[in-house]
Amino acid sequence: MDGNIIMKLRLRETTYQSCYRLNLNILKTLVIDNKQAFKKVWEKTSKQPILYDGNHIYFDNYRTCYTVCGYGGLPTKIYMLKKGNAAGKIEDGLLLQCPLEQLPMQHCGYRGSFLALTADNWLLRLDSQTAKTLQRVYLPPSYRFKHLSSNMDLSTIVVKSIHYRPPALSVSRLRQELPTKIMALVVFTVFPMKYVAGLEIDKLVFGKDVCDANIMQEILVTMHHSGIVKLYSFERILRERRNFEAHLGERCREWDNHVPGSYPSALPFNVPLDDRPPVLFQVQCADHNLQLGGFPWHYVICPQGCQGMFEVKCLQTSRLAENGHLAFKNLGLEMDKAFFHPDESGRLVHSTGDRIRVFTLCSETSSSLPQQQRPSLETCFTINCSEKSQQPAVKVTSSGRNIKTSSKFGNGIEHHYDCIQNVSYENELNILYVTMVNGLAAERALGHLMLYNNEHGHLEKNVLLEGTWDMDSDYIVHLDLDVIIVISKSPARKFVCCMYKLYRNVEEEVLLKNPRQRCKKKTK
User: What are phi and psi of 78, to 5 degrees?
Assistant: First the structure.
């Protein structure tokens, strides 16, 4: 019954509970079915970067927006902003929308919206369907804000500035007035949009070698030139250091009756930091690459000077987990990667050039004291992408015919290289998908999207993407339910976006099962 669509549809008719997960289960059965193939149905080129986020494709620096589920099942343009001057250029954008069952309780009737950060320091909230301006907030002009990120999903966002550049001064004056504040962070809630806090990162507070900072999951993270990463509690900073609350569009008595968010008043920095807050955790690692997760809490780092090697340590004691030293031979072109699984299962994913290993943390139950427990890292499953020749890839021709292409990878005859480009996760279908490039020579490189069972690592489906891939180009592949989006960037800065949709040629299957009908069709 697990793979029978008819039985699942009958179950959906008789159930009295929500059918959301059941519908996704039906769609997953169709996606991994080898009789169903992905066919290229749409393509568009651009001279500027292309981005995909939440069923929306953005062109021309977020000025033009296409919806994936458009007219006739193809991407359709839903709005196009007017081209303004360079000061009004959109530097970064963030789509704020979610399924109805995940909508926060306090949303004030907000529809899906798009946040746009312009070069002249305006933060705009636009309607995601019409691009109508719903709200405008002017950011402090003493900094140039250029990055948008999510702090807590569907809750708060962070607007981050680039490093502060002082005006041109003489050498002697510059030495006397060398600025200590390097950047600023501004935090908003999104449902509804309210101003929470603004703070500056000062070298006198966080150290002379501080070089970057951000706020993620209510944690203030500072990065230092020495490779040290320090974590602070942002909730505690707000509770103890915020002087006053400022409401957008309302006069603030504590700020000389200025109106926060308006021009030219901008926003107040209402969280002054005169001394360093208590440090929750700090560690030294290469490239400031720190990953937190697992059960119990662990962290993953790459020690300085040890590229391609990772260590998994306990967050509480900083002890190395048993088998927590990850160093494997890499024959591919891409660097090794290690990260905690996006499905929040606490598992760890490690990828090399042609292999993916998924680990889980197992705690010892023999010791009663938590300080004496030493969790071990055990292998859940290993994926060898070079052995995918056991299942042929499915390709759809322009006429709609399904062709199974056999490959000779792994036999050493025509094998030249296999390269894993990316490992990602489709949360609604619960599928682990891998983007891989392989071929006999660079001009004959082929792109594959391989779908794996997230629990056991079995190969469910191998999708051969059309055309040859240039190894000098960059590719980003998104799997979103029954749609595949491929975005490529060539060395000549030519951007291409292709869309594949799930397709099944029923007429071809009928003709294959009934040869007589095929003969009748030819005689006609």
Answer: -105, -25
Residue type, 363: S
304/289 Cα distance (integer angstroms): 10
Parallel, antiparallel, or unpaired: how do β-strands 376-384 and 355-362 relate? antiparallel
**Whole-number Å distance between alpha carbons of 267 and 248:** 9
Please report, as a single letter, which amino acid is at residue 253: R
- Tell me which amino acid residue 475 is: Y
Across the strands, what pairs with 199? 185
Calculate Rg over the CA atoms of the chain.
26
Spatial distance between the Cα atoms of 386 and 70, rounded to a whole number of angstroms: 37
Q: Copy the structure tokens of residue 375.
A: 């969790």
User: What is the distance between the alpha carbons of residues 116 and 95, in angstroms, rounded to a whole number?
Assistant: 9
Please list, residue by residue across 286-308, b when 16 or more beta carbons sit within 10 angstroms of its beta carbon and e when fewer do.
eebebbebbeeebbbbbeeeeee
Q: How far apart are CA 259 and CA 264, in angstroms?
A: 9
The residues, ordered by sequence, that sit 6+ positions from 159 with a Cβ below 8 Å of its Cβ are: 117, 123, 139, 145, 147, 148, 185, 186, 187, 188
Residue in the block written with tokens 């950011």: 139
Picking from 195, 192, 188, 194, the residue whose alpha carbon sits closest to that of residue 110 is 192
d(CA 423, CA 358): 11
Q: Give the DSSP letter string of 255-293.
A: GTTB-TTSTTT--------SSPPPEEEEEE-GGG-EEEE
pLDDT along the chain (524 residues), means of 10: 66 67 86 90 94 92 92 91 82 81 55 89 91 92 93 88 70 59 93 91 93 94 95 95 93 93 93 94 93 91 86 92 86 81 92 89 65 81 72 55 50 55 92 84 76 93 88 90 94 93 72 59 54
CB contact at 8 A, 78 and 129? yes
d(CA 32, CA 315): 38
b/e for 44-68, b at 16 or more Cβ within 10 A? Answer: eebeeebbbeebbbbbbbbbbbbbb
Residue type, 419: C
- Contact at 8 Å (CB) between 75 and 499? yes
222 class by beta-carbon count within 10 Å (0-12 exposed, 13-18 middle, 19+ buried):
buried
- What is the model's pTM? 0.85
Contact 300, 338 (CB under 8 A): yes
H/E element holding 241? helix 234-241
Q: Collapsing DSSP states into helix, strand and coil, what is residue 248?
A: coil
> Measuring CA to CA, which residue among 214, 210, 213 is closest to residue 227?
210
Q: Which ranges of 384-455 would DSSP assign to H, the alpha helix?
A: none
